[in-house]
Amino acid sequence: MKRIMLVLMALVMLLLPACATESKIAEVTETAKAPRGIASEYPRVDGSTANIPMMAKIRASYLNEALVEAENNTKVTTTDYAWRNLIDGNADLLLVYEPSSETKKIIDESKVKLKVTPIGVDALVFIVNEKNPVKNLTTQNIIDIYTGDITNWSELGGNDQKIEAFQRVLNSGSQTLFLNLVMKGKKPMDAPKDYRTEDMSGLIEALASYNDTGNSIGYSVFYYAKKMYEVPGLSLVSVDGVMPSDETIGAKEYPYLNEYYLVIREDTPEDSETMKLYNYILSDEGKEDIIKAGYIPIS
């Protein structure tokens, strides 16, 4: 009897790995999702630099493509050019920030009707050297800095140093946000050429180059500055006592909030691949992709 029990136990031990393997295979099979489209028919997606990780995550899920491959296949022309590409027929779908006033005028004059849906929220943030003792600025402080009414950090409780205030070029996404959210009709001073950068990474690199003196300030969008291109030696400042974070942005406590949008042409055919992708992004699965990529979706 004892011998029979030992034989039975040995058989059970032999069968357990096979059962576990079958269970794992079943689990993978159950969770694996068939692609919703094929890469050759994937719509031409364009948008803002700060939305690239979101675009890649959506593409990877939609095509069942490796994320690295999806990242390699995700390119943007940046905010204003993306809007113009859509109305010119050179893009099918946008994940994008607000266009500049100049591009809004071009869109209006084109007579092209667009379907614009807000899907998430980001924020305009201000960046200084981490050794700068000034950790909070009021909205009025920022306006005064950028109109030239405040020119030295000592006026704000900091060191006796000239403020080097960087800006982005006109019609860039973050410059549009800066003018709309902060300046609100007030004209910023003309920044010297060296203090006005073409791209988002250029502004952050320019700020970092002033690390030895610690007297520079500039701005970007939260997702890009904190999650895509964070540079050692720089830090975000709080505005009106509120530090930008996922929590304060999601709770709408931070003052300079901006939405980003999912955009297609209104005449997009209902049975097109573009419309299928549009509907997917607005689905629960699409929202999950947005969250997994680190963004804050619209509630």
Characterize the structure shown.
This protein is α/β, with parallel strands linked by helices. The chain folds into 2 domains: 39-121 and 259-297, D-Maltodextrin-Binding Protein, domain 2, CATH 3.40.190; 122-250, D-Maltodextrin-Binding Protein, domain 2. Helices cover 43% and strands 18% of the residues. The protein has helices at 2-31, 52-63, 67-72, 79-88, 101-110, 139-147, 173-183, 200-208, 222-228, 246-250, 273-282, 284-292, and strands spanning 45-47, 93-96, 114-129, 136-137, 164-165, 167-168, 196-197, 216-221, 234-236, 238-239, 257-265, 296-297. Helix 2 crosses helix 12 (284-292) and helix 4 packs parallel to helix 5. It is elongated.
Question: Which helices and strands appear, and what pairs or packs with what?
Answer:
Layout: H1 2-31, E1 45-47, H2 52-63, H3 67-72, H4 79-88, E2 93-96, H5 101-110, E3 114-129, E4 136-137, H6 139-147, E5 164-165, E6 167-168, H7 173-183, E7 196-197, H8 200-208, E8 216-221, H9 222-228, E9 234-236, E10 238-239, H10 246-250, E11 257-265, H11 273-282, H12 284-292, E12 296-297
